[in-house]
Amino acid sequence: MNVLRATLVDIAREAGVSTATVDRVLNRRPGVKDRTRNRVFDVAARLGYIDDSTDPLKPDMSAQALVEMDFVLPSGTNTFILDLARHLESCALSRPDVRANIHRIEGFNPDELAAKLAELSGRTQGVGMIAIDHPTVREAIRSLSAAGTSVLTLVSDISNVPRVGYIGIDNRAAGRLAGYLLGRLLQGRPAKVALLAGSLSYRGHEEREMGFRHILSEAYPKLSIVEMREVRDDLERAYHEVKTLLVRHPDIAGIYNIGAGNRGVARALEESGRSNDVVFIGHELTDYSRRFLLSGTMDVVIDQNPRVEAREAIDRLSRAIRGEIMPASPHIRVQAIFRENIPE
Fold this sequence. Notes:
The protein is an alpha/beta fold. The chain is 44% helix and 18% strand.
């Protein structure tokens, strides 16, 4: 029978101290009272975290290697997020030094995200999240970090908070790439285009919109954005918005979907018989967007690799928890995928 090894969180809970204090004690750093130090060593020995309670200067390094982290992701129909969660779980299971928990909460709700972060304070060593750029979330991150928890953002970043890094693509560059490709595919002629976003409360979606608008103003001024709709990454909302859009603007020539909901956009285009004459650019290569590329309903998918992001997120959080020197955040490559270069 496999017995779960104790973690710093377990010791901190039993000893009534923070994980940062436990870390200082076990790594023989100054700044801890003798009584507290002895209590931490007693608990660590009782939980089997160190191999010899009579010699507290010799912690069990194999046990000490285990770190505990939590990831907070939005719920819903976003296939990319489902893939990311699956890769996080798979990556954690492949590493005996990591225990990871995945939490799904209502997307686009800053109060719920802040409440989840407060709930995790003192119960985990590290938290990774898709951040919502909102004052309540920023304050929750500051409190979490002050309690000794390492905080990492992935996919979408947040400003002015203590964090150990951001794992994701350059979203502004991704938006510029989408605008460049749309302009080229429409051959620079005068045309109407529309934007769909999950929510601009995600900094990543806001940056994609900014990049898209800037490249159009710089290189393709004849393209006019006639609609901008937030669909909250919901495929049904995306479907109804595009159906309405096609009626309101029958001469629409291009659609850029900044977030999720590609299935809804594709369904509306196909039902309206417009899938061959409207240029449709979206994000994330999934089983669905792969099918839309092959059928011609989608023209380009701008992809980021969730498997790589999951691996880098877990590696960076585990390094931060152990207090290792942190290299610069890794660069996640942006890839434009057409029907002709779909990876196997």
